[in-house]
Amino acid sequence: MTMLKELSHSIDEVNKVIYGQEEVVELLFVALLSGGHVILESAPGSGKTKLAKCFAKVINGDFSRVQFTPDVLPSDVTGIQFFNPKTQEFELKVGPVKTNILLADEINRATPRTQSSLLEVMEESQTTIEGETINIPSPFLVIATQNPIENSQGTFPLPEAQLDRFMLKINIDYPSYETEKQLLANHQLHDPLERVLPILSKSQIISLQEETGKIKVSEVVLDYVLKIVRKTRSSNSIEVGASSRAALSLIRAAKSRAFMKGRNYVTPEDIKKLIPFVLAHRLVLTMDESLRNSKVEVLRDLVNSIDVPVEWERNMERV
Questions:
Q1: How many structural domains comprise the chain?
Q2: What range defines the domain where residue 93 resides?
Q3: What sign results for the dihedral spanned by CA atoms 158, 164, 165, 166?
Q4: Beta bridge partners of 143
Q5: From the CB of residue 40, how many other CB atoms can be counted at a distance below 10 Å?
Q6: All residues at 6 or more sequence positions from 65 whose CB lies less than 8 Å from its CB, including other chains
Q7: Is residue 207 part of a domain?
Q8: Which of 146, 169, 202 is where one domain is finished?
Q9: Which CATH number do you get for residue 48?
Q10: To pair with 211 at 20 to 30 A between CA atoms, which of 59, 164, 263, 291?
Q11: 57: three-class secondary structure by DSSP
């Protein structure tokens, strides 16, 4: 219970800096507890970088940033073996991936080859540099940012294999009038990021992740997830549906949300709440459907066509 209070305190601390984005902040912590990774998408200047820095400071994590551009190479991300003329030997220089929070800024401006350099580290928390394996410290979270693709020039959309590695994709909207006014007023006095306090330790985060893994998921809820995921594969509106990794991500994220709400079990509401963030970016719509509706709209209609289980609580007794 104490750790849960510390977690709640951490969320509040981030919300002091990132005004009016409570849902976004909560989802970042969902990803952290789940061991997942996140894509943040919004217009330039909406606070994505500040959010990542604030998040890293609150959890007492090491922070690294890579500004992706077309000329960034995979070795700029993971590292390289270089020849030291003084010692006449090759030395290993590990890249910015060896950190706790890695900000992959404007990831869709990098070439596909450079984007793919993150695949191993995101999936296995390790990177291989010319045959040598480097383990990444825990906790580890990639926060990738991108501007909306339709408004960006010179971008390389992430392929499906890369998108499937991200647990959540979160769109950040512009703040309300009052929230933006508060933001402007506070930044006249000081940079709020300077006053952010570190709340959690790395060992506490690992313990929180372990506790999250113990959250119960009933067979009824599992069946509900499978019905949704499998229907994305058979829908006439969807060319490529959700993978098994997507189903696992949805369960893991739902367990984290349940833990943050103080429960030891997942409800269908947890699943429904997280579906747009976990599944939408993994889908590929048919050409005709993509001209009519967004992925979120197609997914919403699909989910609404499936009955929400009503006897899941009774099933919890057998978990």
A1: 2
A2: 2-202
A3: positive
A4: 38, 103
A5: 24
A6: 49, 52, 96, 102, 103, 105
A7: no
A8: 202
A9: 3.40.50.300
A10: 164
A11: helix
